Amino acid sequence: MSVFEHPSFDNHEKVLFATDEKTGLKAIIGVHSTARGPSCGGCRFWTYDNSADALQDALRLSQGMSYKNVMADLPIGGGKSVIMKPQGNFDRDALFQAFGRAVESLNGNYITAEDVGVSPDDMMSVHKQTKYVTGLPEGKAASGDPSPTTADGVFRGIRACVKRATGSEDLNGLRVAVQGAAGHVGSYLCEHLSRAGAELIVADMNVDGLKKHVDNFGAVIVDKDAIYDQEVDVFAPCALGSVINPETIDRLKVKIVAGAANNQLATRDMGAALQKRRILYAPDYVINAGGIINVMGEIRGDFDPQWVKGKLAGLEATLGEILDRAENEGRPSNDIADEMARARLEEAAAAKAAAA
Ligand code: NAD
Questions:
Q1: Are residues 213 and 328 both part of a single domain?
Q2: Which residue's alpha carbon is at the smallest distance from atom 30 of ligand 1?
Q3: Per-residue model confidence as pLDDT tens digits over 42-84
Q4: Which member of 26, 68, 80, 255 is catalytic?
Q5: Which end of the chain is more exposed for a tag (fewer CB within 10 A), N or C?
Q6: Does 96 reside within a domain?
Q7: pTM for the full model?
């Protein structure tokens, strides 16, 4: 398994492989960039088949956090961590404390938070070993679960895309397929969409978790593999990454792809493939930045809901700028977003070097 030659290695400043035999911890922390401040991004707790898959996730996700944070104009860099879920029984508190010690060893270069599979209580375990943790359920500026704010941002992104595609931001009667609808973000997103009058088609590995959407919103459950075949207006991926790939792209019968999942495009050229099929794509890291904005409210030390709302409005403006440029230049929206993010990061790195 290569690291420096890895296709997802993008001059990451640091990659830490942390193990702890006693608790079974196997974690990878990717610090992609600290040009704009300490790297910040969630911790994913997942069953990986092997460490190569975990490394791939840590490298891609941490780069994505740099792009996300800079596009949301936050004074932080990009980082992310993954913990390989141990097989069999394990002591969850001890495991997350061991992870906390790994975070602490980076001396504030990386600040962690929740991602898939991680709860605010897990972050309390991490907090026993380090102060470089956010998304806590209690404390002076505790911001708690970031998912509602992420869902708010994604909903705004969907609405903005609908306005472009139909000329109206009225979602009444529009059909939206939500993948991962039983999850944290997916559930809150379903609430927003239903309140706006959208019809929901939902899928999740956790089928029981979808029943509340049937009862509350009249959602229609489809098999998790059938979610790509739905004739709907919007496909909202809110599960895991790489769901837009050569196997799925020709199955999509939608006008818009806009959701919460990180790294929705398996490869960059999937953006051009969507554009060719006249499918509007809202770059994931632009519209799913609500969670990190929420977390930033906690890092600032004075959680202010109005500041968060202002930043969410900023996301809509940035998405508008990207989609305008994509349309005017006839280029894929993900390429435009990447280009803007890289230019902003280079500017920050140059300013940091000049100040040193
Ligand atoms: P979650 O674990 O609560 O939800 C994910 C859901 O997806 C689960 O219900 C799971 O059963 C389901 N799922 C997994 N694989 C699936 C498959 N193949 N088909 C259908 N369903 C599947 O996670 P979350 O916090 O809601 O995050 C969802 C996505 O959004 C992730 O990609 C995450 O990185 C991204 N994201 C989350 C936040 C946040 O604030 N939580 C912020 C930004 C981005």
A1: yes
A2: 261
A3: 999 999 999 999 999 999 999 999 999 999 999 999 999 999 9
A4: 80
A5: C
A6: yes
A7: 0.93
